[in-house]
Amino acid sequence: MIPRFSVSPLAVTAITGAALLSYALPAQSVPAPAAHSVEVAQIVPLSGPLANVGKEVNTITRATLDDFNKSSRAAQIVLKTYDDGNAADKSTQLATQAVGSAQALVSCFGSVGCMAQQKASAAAGVPLIGPIAGAAPLRGKAASTTYAVRASAASEVARLLGFATTMGLTEVGVLVQDDGFGRSYAAELDKLAASYPKLKITRSTLNPASADYGKSVADLMAGQPKVLLLMANAAHSTQFMTAWKAKGALPFVLNLAGQANAQFASRMKGYVGAAAFATVTPSPWETKIDAQREYQRIAKSVGLAPSYLGFESYLNARALIEAVTQAKSSGKAELVRWLDNAPRLDLGGYSVSYSGDKLGSNFTDMALLLPDGTYRH
């Protein structure tokens, strides 16, 4: 269960020495102080092609905070939601507006929105908790008011390159989506490549505004890859894979954590090749740790099936709750101060820390996509 926090009533007893000899005053019950309200903003795409993603993030966040609010006497967390349509300028505008009254921002989505919100967060001294993005600028000491919960893009890429090396898949074809998302992962690939000298890497860049899947397929087929590493979103990845299948059999496919979603699984249902994914959370379907069980209960309460995205959103909301309840005050400065000095946050068996390198978590794992469209963690 999510920890319940309460404030004990203040017992006030005034008894003089003389009165004590003759009688005892009746017990006086003083009501507990009313819970203070903490405004939190969430800016995600609720319209446009990523609306389904933003709606799941928002639904799980709201359900987790509502669950906390039901029994909390220490604080009530009021969530205000904004739709940025996954547009950087809109996200900047809304974040600048939101930090005027919000004490924290939670679970921005993707590099486009998170990088924009980070600027407004830093300028206002408002903590940005749980960006759902792996870009390097969103973590570390330089990200003064940003507190990542998930592992970094570097950790994801290292997990996938290590897997390819271990499996002897030395010829690697890499598809890079040419925008902030794809380029952030490609930059980590460039940094890590020297650590995996056995790998021969060929890459193709895909313009998301005018994608030429045939060209990317031809570019990468020329390198005769034993494995494909897709640094593109689910929509572009599946269309690329469809174009490849029209030309020949697909090799083993490696995917980033953001592709392990229902959209990818639905579009690739019946795919009999091997597709593996890095993940930045434990399995959302297992029940080994408290966080898994609590997330599943909350997801069920709002009619959502468990997913990696939903579980990550839940963990981010839990990190926010931890900060609000443990900081001495709910003001933005106090939240930042507490997070900066928090050695370890236990979110129900999943831990993050912001002391030292301020990277949050380095947890990564692997999952497989099965032909029936489900994931095996």
From TrEMBL:
Organism, scientific name: Ottowia testudinis
Domain of life: Bacteria
Lineage: Bacteria, Pseudomonadati, Pseudomonadota, Betaproteobacteria, Burkholderiales
Keyword Signal: yes
Name of the protein in question: ABC transporter substrate-binding protein
Record-linked InterPro entries: Leu-bd, Peripla_BP_I
Pfam families cross-referenced by the UniProt entry: Peripla_BP_6 (PF13458)
Occurrences of domain Leucine-binding protein (ranges): 38-346
Signal peptide: 1-29
